[in-house]
Automatic annotation (TrEMBL):
It holds the Pfam family SQS_PSY. Keywords: Transferase. CDD domains: Trans_IPPS_HH (cd00683). GO terms for biological process: carotenoid biosynthetic process. This is Farnesyl-diphosphate farnesyltransferase. It comes from the Bacteria. NCBIfam families: HpnD.
Amino acid sequence: MGQSGPMTPQQYVQQKAVASGSSFYYAFLFLPAPRRAAITAFYAFCREVDDVVDEVTDPGVARTKLAWWQAEVAKAFAGQPTHPVMQALMPHTLDYGIEQRHLQAVIDGCQMDLEQTRYLDFAGLSGYCHLVAGVVGEVAARIFGQTDPRTTEYAHRLGLAFQLTNIIRDVGEDAMLGRIYLPVSELQQFDVKAHEILKRQYSDRFTALMRFQAERAHRLYEEAFALLPDADRRAQKPGLMMASIYRTLLREIEHENFQVLHQRIRLTPLRKFWLAWKVQALGRMS
C-alpha cells in the first residue's frame, strides 16, 4: 500500500467497502464527504457482521463472534469503541440518528442465519429481511438526509426488494451452504422439492417459482418508489441509484431465464457506475 504505520479507522472502513465490490459503493461516490464517511463506516459494520456468518464454518465460533459484536456495539455507545469500524462510525451516530438498536438488529438478523436455514412462509422471510435489509435501509435513509418520517417506510420496502433480489441471485450459492431462503410454502405451491435446489437441478417448475419471486420483487420496487415523499426525492438519490443497479440485475437474471443454480449473475463495475451516474446526472431510473 506504500504507507507506513497502521491504518486509521477511516482507511479501514474505506478498504472494507471497496473490497466488497458492492453496488452500494457506487451510490456512495456521489455523496458529500461527511455523509459518505458515515455510510461507508455503517456499510463496513454490516459487512463485518455478515462476514461472521459467511466465512466462519463452525456455528459455535460464529455465535461467539456475534456475541463479541453485540458487546462491542454496547461498549461503543457507552463511549469506548475498540474495533476500527466502530471507531469510524461513532462520530456520525448523533448527526444522523444512528441508534444502538439499529446495529443490534443487524446482528440479530445474522444470528437468524445461524439458527435457521428455512422459512415456512413469506411472512417469516419478511421478518428476517426486516433485520438484515429493512433496518439497513432505514439507517441509510437517515444518513442520506431524510427529512420526512414517511421516508422510513419507503426505505424498509426498498430494503426488502434488495434482499429478495439478493436471494434470487444467490439461490445456488446458498444451496451449497445448505440454505434455502425461498419460503417452504412457495416451494410446495410450485411443486419444487428442497433436494432439487440443494442438488442444483433446474426444471420448468423451478423457473416458474423464480418468476413468481421476481414478480414480487418488482412489485416491491414499485411500492417503494410510490412511498418516497417528493420532499426527500433528491436526498434519497443514492438509494435510487442502488435500486437502478439492483433492478437491472434482476432483469438480467430474468433475461438469463433464472440460471442461478450453477453461477452468480453479475453486472460489471462499469455498468454499475453508469447506472448510478444516470440517476445522479439525469435523474433517470433504468
